[in-house]
Amino acid sequence: MFKSLFACLIVMLVLITSNISFAGVSTDTIKSGDEYYVSDRATWGNCVKYARLFKPSLPYGLDTAASKKKVINSSNPKKGRIAIMAVGSFYHVGRVEKEDNEGKNLSITIVEANYRSNQLTRRKATCTKSIGRCEADLKIIGYFK
Asked: Does residue 78 have a pLDDT over 70?
């Protein structure tokens, strides 16, 4: 009994301290030296400002869920597009860094600001069968080209 309880505690500790989540989404902090790191911390607290660094055509005034939904003009994940996500009451945006829509292990990787308060993060959803599952795990509702 003691051994199985100890084994369960070890597994829980590994899961808690790793970047593994039960939804198939891993999250890492973007640090200095990463190509998506920016030293201007003013952008770290605003997902739209950060995304606009990589997509200058991203419209201004994206401060509500409704305004973010309005700019959706694609349903396909592609590198460089801005993902619109149903996260929080104001919604969230992030840049698609990579998408793998072929083979058995499908994935979408997003780089973003302020998913974790005032931090730059990279989140990757990995799934099988349908890229739509990855989108659902990241709560992506559409993209801005």
From this structure: yes
